[in-house]
Every structure is written in structure tokens, then in C-alpha cells.
Protein 1
Amino acid sequence: MESPREMPLWRRLLPLALLAAFLALGYAFGLQRLVSLDSFLDSRAMLRETVENHTALAAAGFVALYATLVAVSFPAASLVTVAGGFLFGWLLGGVLTVVGATIGATALFLAARYAVGDFLRRRTGGALKRFAEGFRDDAFAYLLVLRLTPALPFFAVNIAPAFFDISLTTYVAATFLGIIPGSLVYAFLGSGLDESLMRAADHGVGLSSLVTPEVTIALFGLAALGLAGLVLKKTVLRRRPGQTVVKAEGL
């Protein structure tokens, strides 16, 4: 079987080009308006009715939509996760988000590794090369920590491991486990959205109408994830076997 490095450049870049083309088509057809907070708020009653009447089909459609948005790197992951919690409940919405995000991230990872991963690995030098070696020494732990660090862009964490020779199994497992906490927190935030909106309709938009128990718990969860990610970034990501420090900021 022909390896990627033996193929013409255009063939190696084709998967990434297709993802970019899907993203461009999405913008051309107004995806940014359809997947937006205003659009969701306007259609939330219809969406919830659809979910109640066709739960299995709606769940499959949600996973497919989420996977597609992640694969093409459309910047709406948090909003769609909140919508999932609102429509399916925090537990099922969180689970569907994790599944969809893992599928989409894996598709992007494979496209990037197929296109330019080998090329960049062979030309990596200096500190980045040492970091790549450290990443390979404990790839699962490194990627898991990256997934648990909300401060790092989701797109960057999806695509960066393709340049560090990580196995597909390790990538999928670390991605699946690492995005569970954040997905459940955002889905839980969405599960309290209806109550917040009803309070706002009855009493006007104010802090007291927006702060429900679900929102409060979700905000504490986000703060805890941010703190945990910061601690892990300052500790685990700076260590590698046999050396004292590896800086992750250049990832």
C-alpha cells in the first residue's frame, strides 16, 4: 500500500481541502446564522418538540451535526453543547456531545496526519522536537491533560497531536475521556436554560432571573475545570521522563 510520503502533495492535502471546502460551503449557505444563539432561542420550542417526538433520530442527527462542526472546525462547540443539554437533558446531551466531538476530532486528526504530519515530524527541531519526544513518551497523559485544559483552543488540541506521531487508539481514548467533564458541565448549563428564560419572561432580564441552581453549579464546574487545567498545565505538561522541564506554550 502506498504510504502518504510517497504520494503527490495534492493527494495528501485532499482530506484537509475537503474539510475546508465543507466549512466554506457552510458559511456560504448561512451556517453561521443557523448555528447561533439567536437562531437557537427562536427555534428552541420546535426543536424540543422534535426531540420529544423523534428522540432516537434527533440524537443521531445531533451527533452527526456535532461531528461535522468539529471536523470542519466551526466555532460553535460550546453553544451546541449547551443546546444539547437543553434538548436532551444534561446526561444524554453530554454523552451525545462526547460521542460527536470524538468522531469529529478524530476525522480532523486523521486528515491532518495524512496530509502534513510526517512532513512536519521530519523537519521538527530544537525545543519543539524535544517536546514531541516527550509527548510520545507519555502521549495519553499529555493529550488527556490538554483536553482537560479549557484555556487551550479545541481546534488546536484536535490537530496538534497529528504532528507528534500519536497512535489513533491513544488519540481516541484520551479525547473521549478528556472532553467528558467539560461536555457535561456545558450540557448541565443548558439543562437550566429553560428555567432562566421563563424567569426572565416573568420578571424581566436580570441577574436573579438568570442565576438558577443549574447555572450556578455549571459556573462552579467551569471554574473548577479552569483551575484544574491551569494546575495540570503547570505540572504535567512541563515534565517528561528523564528531563526536568518541557514547555507546552509553543503547541
Note: The longest helix spans residues 90-122.
Protein 2
Amino acid sequence: MIVPYDQISEDALKGLIEEFITRDGTDYGFEEVPLSIKVEQVKQLLKRREVVVVFDPAYESVTLLPRRDAELLEQGASS
């Protein structure tokens, strides 16, 4: 279930964003980008609805996913 990001406390949202950023491990880009910049970039993705907050009632967990992935999950759940 997609949850509006603006209904989550700022601290909880920051934790979700940081987990999303570090989920895949080390960044192998040419330049190291500070975590604070990456957090702001993800906030912009949330505002543009390219990334969404997803609550999974079966596991009682919350995560960030690209909108396309979240929509696919919702379609699979309703089948």
C-alpha cells in the first residue's frame, strides 16, 4: 500500500531515505556525494512521485521503492 510521504514524521522519513540510499552498499561513482545531498535528491524524487513510501501489512514494514516497482507489487497483491 502506497503511503503519502508527507504523512510520515521528518525523522522517520529521513531514516527511510537513508536506508534506501545505502541499501545496495557502496557507491562506485566517480565522485563521492555526501549523504545529505543524496537525501535531498531522494526527497525531490518523492515530491515528483518517482519514488514512493510503501507499507507492507503482511510484514508490518515500510520502505521506499521506485513508483513502477510499487505499482507492480500492488497489481500482484490484487490478483
Note: The mean pLDDT is 89.
Protein 3
Amino acid sequence: MKLKSLHGRMIMVIAATIALCWAVALAVLFLYLTHNKNSIWDDKLRTIATRILLTIPAENKLRVMRPPGNGLQLRDEALSESEALAFQVWVDGSRLVVRSPGAPEAPLRPDFTEGVATTVIAGERWRVYSVSDKMGRVYVQVGNLHSVVDAELRQEALTALVLNTLLLLLVGALMWFVVRISLKPVVALGAAMRNRRSFDLTPLTPALLPRELHPLVASFNHALRQLDEAVEGERRFIGDAAHELRTPLSAVQAQAQIALRAPTAAEKDVALAKLLTVAERSTRLSEQLLDLARLNAGANAPQHAAADLGALVMHVVHEFDIHALQQVRKILLDVRPCTIRCDIDEIGILLRNLVDNALRYTPKGGRVRVSCGQEAGTAPPQERRVYLEVADDGPGVPASERAAIFKRFHRVAGTPSRGSGIGLSLVAGIAEVHRATIETGTGLDGRGLGIRVMFPALGFAEAPAPQNL
């Protein structure tokens, strides 16, 4: 199961780490006791046997010593239960002169060889250490039951295991406390964000957060700034759009009143013609506002596919044939086969706004040329960019204002035709979505305005099949 909580993940990692450390410590303790349980007791047995040998009286006194009953009598309480060692003192390997309480009468090590060995006496396993004097006559044998050794080792292992477990649990509790304290600023920041008022997009304060979270907060603040700019832009757009719509609606109302009050049919026709013009302008403005809203709504989820730009240009330009004839303008075509990846609907909006803008600002008898194709060069076709250009021979735009005409509701001062100021901003937005660049210059015969949109190359070994229009 994948944990979604950072706190849960950290606690899970801590718990897993503690469990792993506990298992490793248990394994190390087991290996240590397994390999050293004999050596620990062997050292004890060696030390005791050596000390007993050094305290034995002279040989002439040993000859007359006889073990009375159970040998030399020692108080049982002198040795603790866990240290109830058995020892024997033998002379010439045949006569037992001293033995501890509970020690067997048979030699602990029958071969009387010096060193450590494991023997079995009366069905019980003993760990025995045997040592003799320089003459090899006096032998001291010290032993302990394996069951006693194993019990003590188990007790020591259990004690070490309990202490190790308690220590790891303490470390885990401390780490859990540290995690909880460290995440408190994050929880507090989340609570503060939830308690904010609507559209409160002020940046977050990372001062109380851990340094590792500062880049994440900086990213949040960047997103908040972008959202704030977008909201503010939409607010300005709504205000400007409302202002733009107020003027043609007022004109429609005024022309309708004039038509109603016209005394003659001729004056009524004039008023109705002006009313039609204003209605067409309002319709165009509404369409552009809808296109702009549609572009903003779909900018984050573009549906791009390969399309034949030349076929799209032919299709859109034919829509303007009758309009151009009525306005006594001429549209020239220079279309060459070329393929781009695009959203066909958006590129159609871009092309319609470019053509409409050129026809609007071109005087009667003027020309508008629409061309498309691949830029010249020696690179393979799939590596060359595609251009779409609309040029006219109208009054043109001063070079100082060419960058500003792509802003919303911007109009060049002194132009005879009044536009909405939205068309070219749509062009700029659609070009940005398609990663295209816009170039401006003079139009036909050194006059007017030329706008060229440069689309990126497909970059494929083989261009995809164009979509049918």
C-alpha cells in the first residue's frame, strides 16, 4: 500500500529502520554468543584451576591427606548457584585428595591431559579444564556443567536483547517526536491556507519551515503569482470587454431610434444601413471574445495534430471572397504545400483574424496577400520551419508600435477604421500556444503591414499524414 501522508511515510521508514537495527543486533548477539560461549567459560575455568594449583600445600602433606567422605568440606553458600563449579585435585593420576561439593568421584577428565575439553560423566556433559604441576604428579581439574553454562548465556542474551530493544524503542520515540515537531509548521501552513479568504493569493511565508521545504514554498509562491496575474488579467479583460460592448450597443440603440423617427424612407434606409454596420461590428466583437475565452479555456490542454497548412489557408480565404468583393479589395494567394502540428480550430481563428485585420485597414482597391510554405534552406524539409504570412498595402503601422498591436484593446492612433483591439491579441495567444514566433514588417510594395507567423519544424523523419479539412 502506497502511503500518501509524508508523516506516515517517515514513521514507516523509522519503524522499518528500528526493526532492521533490532534484527541486526539480534543476529550479531547470537553470532557472538555462539562463537564465544566456550571461550568465556574456558577463561574462567583456566583462572580458577591455576589459582587452586598455586594454593596446594607441599607434596609431603598431600601424601597423608585423605578425602573425608566428600573431600574437604566447604559451605555450599560460599558459591552462588550460577558459579557452582566442580573441581578435583589428583595425585599421580590415581588418588583423589580434594574435591568440591557436588563434584563426581570419577575424574572430570580421565586422560589427565592439560587443557580444555568436553567430557560426559554419568550422562551429563561437562566443560573441563585440567592443569598439572611441573613434575606432572599433581593435577587440578575444574569443570562446570554445560547446562549451567547454557543457562547463564541465555540469561545474558535475554538481558542484552531487552536492553537493546528498550534502547531502540527510545530512539524510535525520540525520532517520532522530532518528526512530529518538524512537521508542525507544515500543518500550520496548511491550516492557514485553508482559512484564507477567497482569491487571497498573497505569497506564503517560508520563515518557520525547514530549509528543505523552501524550494517547494517558492514554487507555490510562483504559482500563486501566476494565478494572481491571471485573475487580475481576467478582471481587466472583463472590464475592457464590458466597455467595448457598451459602445456598439449604445450605437445600435441610437440608430434604431433614428430609424423609427425617420420621416422618409430614404432616411430610414440610411439609419438601418448604419444599424446593420454596428450590428456586424458587435457580432464580430462577440465572436472574438468567445474565441478568446475558448483559447484561454483550452490553453492548458492543446489537441495538436499534423495538418496541411496550405489547405487550411485555401479554406479560410474562400470565406472572405464575397466580403472582399463587397469592399472592393483583392486577396492574393501564394500557397505551397506545408505541414504543421496544430489545433486546426485555433489556427483557423488565427488566420481569420489576420485576414480580417488586413481587409479592415486596407483602403478600397487595395490588395491583401496570404502566403504559406517552408522557409528556404538546405536542411531537410522536416527540419525547416513553416511560415504563414498576411501582408497588405494599407497605411501600415509605425515600427515603434508594431509590438504593442498584439496587446488586448490596443489601437493605433489615427487609423481610419475602428477595430475591437482583440483580433491580433488572439493571434499572439494562439501563436504562443503553438510555440510559433511572430515577425512584423512592411507589406506589399513597401507599404502597409506584413505579419509573418513562423511555426517550428516537425522534426520527424517522415511528416504525419495531414488532417482532412
Note: Residues 51 and 334 are 116 Å apart (CA to CA).
Protein 4
Amino acid sequence: MIPILAALLTVVAGSAIWLLIAGLRPVAAPSSTPRRSQLTRPQRKQLHLIAIGLVIGLLLWILTGYIAAVIAAPILALLAPQLIPRSTEKSTIARLTAMEEWTRSLVGLLGATASIEQAIIASRSSAPKALKEEIGMLAARLQSGIPIEQALTQFGDDLDDTTGDLLTGSLILGTRRRGAGLARLLEGTAETIADDVAARRQIEADRAKPRANARFITVIAVVVIAVEFLFNPAYVEPYRTALGQIILIALVALFLAALWWMNIVARDPKGQRLLRPTGDAS
């Protein structure tokens, strides 16, 4: 009866914390000028994760007597989604595929329009979803009278990718030379991007299995440890002491450090840009 009552009290306490966080959120002032929230969506998500982890930690502390859970659970809830090895290459491949599709569409539009500027503006309506925002901004710059080389340079900054610089450089070179050679230049660029996409897909397929193994091992480790603490308390009895809980916190920290290291190793390296260093938008 006492554990059930303690669990209910923990749930009530967690709900109170959740309501407190919700009450601290800024409320839009009743005026015609909209106010932006002081907390971004990622920050609100982090607060939610911390609150959930704190509730779970309090519940585990009351049920098992391990006060270290109050510290470990919020940290695990906050960091685990970022530390479990995962791929970011799929979004990159989608953007590269969109670059190829858009380049080929420009080749088709060049035969029906008078200039590359008009082709770019006309391509905005059928732009691939992965690049719709960047292409829309490029078309808007051209319509506002910005010189095409400057607009294309800003377009390359928006893409912020080595292959994007290849596409941007081809477009800049094409605007200087114009003529029938521009279509052939863009066709060659599209073929190069297609080869890059094929290579990256092969690399991603090779990397997928180690990432899946890392996630599987992580889940197994967490489940085994949880089962030991919940159903075999005699085995983990030494961790109930003050020194034992300090050691337990240190072991959790080492576990998180191992996950962080695996995530760093599995992270896709960002290539150096061709037109300017990455992140330099001057």
C-alpha cells in the first residue's frame, strides 16, 4: 500500500512541476503586435524531457531507495536522444537528390525561356520540397533586382554544402558565358550530382548496420540494468550505500560518455566548401 501511495504522490508532484513549467511560459500580450515566445521549440522540448525524467527519477527513488535515480533519470531523458548513434545522411541525400532534380528542370526550362534568370524564377513553382525554401529565396532575390551572381552566391550560402557549391559555381559560370553551352554545363553538373548521390547511398548502407548494432546494444544494456535493480535487489545491494550511489552515478556518466563517443564516430563529416569556408557568409 505504501509504494502505491508513494507512486501516486510522485505523479501528483510531477504534475505540479509540469503545470509550473507551463505557467512560466510567456503569454502573448493582448496587442496588435505579436510577441515572440522567449523559449524556442527545442528549449521547450528539453524542459519537457527534464520534467519527465525528474518524475521518473522521483518514482524510482521512492520505489527502490536509490536517490541517484533523481539525478540520473533527468540527465538520461535529456541526453539519450542526442547520444544514441543515428544517421543525418538521409536528409543530406534528399537535398542532393533535390539539387539534381532542380538542375535537370532548369535544363528543360532553358529551352522555353529567354534567360537563366527567367528559368530560375519559373522553376520556383515546381521546386523539390527539400530545396523549396532556398530556391524560393533565390527567385525572390532575382525578382527584387539583385544581380544574379550575388544572388547565386547567397544561394550557395543557403545550401552550405560542397555539392551545392559545385551547382552554384556551374550556374555562375553559365551566367557569364550564356548561350547553348549553359544547358550542356548543367546536364554535366546533374550527372556529377547523381554520381555523388549514388556513392553516398552506398556509404550510408554500409554505415547503417553498425548504427543499428549500437542502438540494439544500448537498449539491451538499459533493460538488463533496469531488471537487475527492480527484480534482483540483493545483487545490487552494495549500491544502496552513499559510496555505492556515487559509484553508480560515475558508471552512468561513463555509459553516457561511451554513447557520446559512438555518436561522434558515427557522425557524418561535413565537407569543406569550395566557394568559401563553411559558415563564412561574409
Note: The CA atoms of residues 32 and 205 lie 52 Å apart.
